[in-house]
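Have a close read of this protein, sequence plus structure tokens, and explain what the tokens say about the fold. Thanks in advance:
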Amino acid sequence: MKDKKEIKKSIIKWLVIIAIIILVYFWRRDLIDDAIYEMTEIPVSAGILCLVMTLLYFATEGLIISSMTIREEKKLPWYKGFLSGLFCAFYRLITLGSGSGFAEIYYYNCNGIPVSKGTGMTLVQYTFQKIAIGIFGTASFFYLYAAGQEGITDYAIYMVLGIIVITAIVFFLVLIAVSEKVAALIIRIAEKIMKEGSRFHSKLDTVKSNIINFNKEGREIWSHKGHFVFIVLLNFVKFICWYSIPGILLSQEFNVTIIQCIAVMAVVNMISCVMVTPSGIGTLEFMFVLLFGAVLPEENATAAVILYRFYTWIVPFIIGAFIAGFHKRKVNPDFQPDT
């Protein structure tokens, strides 16, 4: 009877996942159809290399997630971190980015890490990403500006504003992560803003809990400076994997190098991160065509951003859908999650 029930649940889960894949296809049909067309126009070797870089991104993400749990009793091995990244990529697309963090906390929880610890680690990992994006983008901006890169010099003032904004964001996040006093101050501010009777009061306990967990995990990692530097460096490696995709697509046909393309992509991603839209949708495409369009025909820049989105969004989503389909929550009888 139990086996039949499990089979029924499995069939329902796969039907839901297949339905989601079909819905995403029709939702992003223009992107997927255009990407498939553009793939017929590029060398097979370039397409395969882009796929490899996509998988290397998540392989590095796996190392980061595993490293985040290194001092936990339930340390995640590298391959589970790799699967977690792709599992989250599935939810990232269907929730426009908002569900990715919850999916990671859930995956941690399924592997014996309490929700409070998982929440803290997810928020700290988000901070590490912002640090890497800010440093990489800022360094790339100065490199390209010194080289007189078209597009960068034309919009330098806006790039500088973007650097200031992301620096402020990173500084704010790091302060909350490493300082108990700052975390306590933020909680007091939240209590005043979300006081009883306000429309946000029901969220107060969740906000306070997240800040406390974020600060606890942040101070834990900050106390091991080598670990902190190692994870930031891994984030650099991770982003190089995705940032190199435009270079793989464009360097053979146009007078640009892969290093130039990586630098431009670092600036594109940094600016799109500080422009508020879900998952950077629209802003990344706009900045991509704006900056790459300054050094190559606009139609080619448009084709490249379509393929970039395909390899960084659609491919991980499809792989992640299968991981979500085969994923089973394993309950450890000795595991008691935080309440």
Residues 159 and 271 are 7 Å apart (CA to CA).
